[in-house]
Specification:
- The complex is a heterodimer of chains A (216) and B (210).
- Chain A has a domain at 3-148: Double-stranded beta-helix (4-Layer Sandwich).
- Chain A is built from 3 helices and 13 strands, in the order E-E-E-E-H-E-E-E-E-H-E-E-E-E-H-E.
- Chain A has helices at 48-57, 117-126, 185-188; strands at 3-7, 10-15, 21-24, 28-40, 63-74, 80-93, 98-102, 106-111, 132-146, 150-155, 161-163, 168-181, 197-210.
- The radius of gyration of chain A is 18 Å and the shape is globular.
- The relative contact order of chain A is 0.18.
- Chain B has one domain (2-209): Mitochondrial biogenesis AIM24 (Double-stranded beta-helix, 4-Layer Sandwich), CATH 3.60.160.
- Chain B is 10% helix and 57% strand.
- Chain B has 3 helices and 12 strands, in the order E-E-E-H-E-E-E-E-H-E-E-E-E-H-E.
- In chain B, a hairpin with a 3-residue loop joins strand 1 (2-5) and strand 2.
- The longest helix of chain B has 11 residues, at 44-54.
- The chains are: A mainly beta (216), B mainly beta (210).
- Chains A and B meet through strand 11 and strand 13 of A and strand 3 and strand 4 of B.
- Strand 11 (161-163) of chain A pairs antiparallel with strand 3 of chain B, so a sheet runs across the interface.
Chain lengths: 216, 210
């Protein structure tokens, strides 16, 4: 793994020739050795078509390519950083939460409407995720940012997990998600419990939840 | 039943009983849960009048069901308090969750409340069980005994429990009015026997500038 945790808010990445890293632009704190940072106009991998796709999807967080040989420290905005190692499965995460990821991962954009149709789109709007989300697939490590600490909740077929949309960070594995509503007459008259919408995740995998209801 | 997961997340195993928590503080749950809004200040009509008059409007929800529920509030640190029949005095904004066996109410605090910038009333929790309180930064628990009274900055005070008398202390001199004060013009003094929770951060208070 190319990443190593320095403390809860900083990671150190080892760059070796021939292996690229992608990181959020401006997230470099310090580096050792011969490392070059090139702004990535396309905002990630793939050709021009994927770039247009990301632009349209509003998932085009400015990224930079990190190449060379040496070590780089990353951190951003004092947010907590969580390292996630992927072994062939797909991570679903918002683009602005991505701090850095290895070049071995395939980046893509997913239309939420394709998972759950209209309700998927409604879910994206309610949870503030928009209509699209970023996917990372393959073998490698990802550093994801969150406000407050992150904890993992395992999802098993017998036990679906419900998450507050504002506290949701990312998930991976074979997971279906849908928006579940607990709207009742109480919410209509302004006496709701503040937990009217929840993301229901079922299947098998892991969901990452942050200790805060604040977006980044 | 209350477990801390890290210092900022509270995990509660719910087995059919009702846990009260601050509105909207649930971040995740598994199993079956139902959330219902309650209101602080006691039940019934009397509670409603109390809430209106005191402004200590803690919006609480009742969580019932089977499974594990995780709570967190804006990434603030969480402290667990064990109550055995005694009373915990806490600001409603600092109270995250209480056990089914605890009752909450409202009491008058006088000048201390005004100096904290939190109003004249505070929330009381009493009974047998566990409560979770939040603080900005990890809170320290300071013991007060009859020989050793304690003075606390109103902005850093979070909660207290036990048999304590509190009085309001001011170190205001003519220098304060000239704008030359030391920044510590007011303190709350605790005497008696009990525990005081203090956070390593100061809220904005009226007294804070003096």
């Amino acid at each position: 793994m190319a990443f190593r945790e320095i403390n809860s808010k900083m990671i150190e990445a080892t760059v070796v020739p021939g292996q690229r890293l992608f990181s959020q632009r401006g997230a470099m704190l310090a580096y050792r050795g011969e490392v070059s940072f090139t702004p990535n106009l396309q905002g990630g991998q793939g050709g021009v078509m994927s770039m247009i796709g990301r632009r349209l999807a509003n998932e085009d967080t400015p990224l930079m390519t990190v190449e060379g040989s040496g070590t780089v420290l990353f951190g951003h905005g004092g947010h907590h950083v969580q390292l996630i190692t992927l072994t062939g499965d797909t991570l679903y995460v918002e683009a602005d939460r991505l701090l850095a990821f290895e070049g071995t991962l395939q980046q893509g954009t997913m239309f939420l409407g394709s998972q759950g149709g209209v309700m998927g789109m409604v879910r994206g709007q309610v949870s503030g995720q928009g209509l699209f989300t970023t996917t990372l697939k393959g073998h490698g490590a990802v550093a994801v940012m969150a406000h407050g600490g992150v904890f993992e909740v395992p999802i098993t077929p017998q036990r679906p997990v419900h998450v507050d949309p504002q506290a949701y960070v990312a998930h991976h594995g074979d997971v279906r998600n849908k928006l579940s509503t607990a709207l009742g007459w109480r919410d209509m008259v302004g006496r709701g419990s503040g937990e009217a919408f929840q993301l229901e995740l079922s299947g098998s995998g892991v969901v990452y939840v942050q200790a805060s209801e604040e977006k980044l | 039943m209350f477990r801390l997961q890290g210092s900022k997340v509270l995990a509660v195993d719910v087995t059919g009983d009702a846990v009260k928590a601050k509105n909207g503080s649930m971040v995740a749950y598994d199993g079956q849960m139902a959330f219902k809004k309650l209101s602080g200040g006691g039940e019934g009509l009397r509670g409603m009048v109390t809430r209106r008059l005191t402004g200590e409007q803690m919006t609480v929800m009742e969580v019932r069901g089977q499974g594990t529920c995780w709570f967190a509030d804006r990434a603030s640190e969480i402290n667990l308090v064990q109550l055995q029949g005694d009373t915990l005095y806490v600001e409603s904004s600092n109270l995250l969750a209480t056990d089914a066996g605890l009752r909450t109410g409202t009491t008058f605090t006088g000048l201390r409340g005004a100096s904290q910038g939190n109003g004249l009333f505070t929330t009381t929790v009493e009974g047998h069980g566990q409560a979770a309180i939040t603080s900005d930064g990890p809170a320290v628990v300071l013991r007060v005994s009859p020989q050793y009274p304690l003075s606390v900055d109103p902005g850093a005070y979070v909660a207290h429990q036990g048999n304590l008398r509190q009085s309001f202390q001011s170190g205001v001199t003519f220098r304060t009015f000239l704008g030359e004060g030391g920044g510590e013009a007011f303190q709350i003094r605790f005497e008696g026997d009990g525990l005081v929770y203090v956070q390593p951060s100061e809220r904005n208070t009226i007294a804070g500038d003096a």
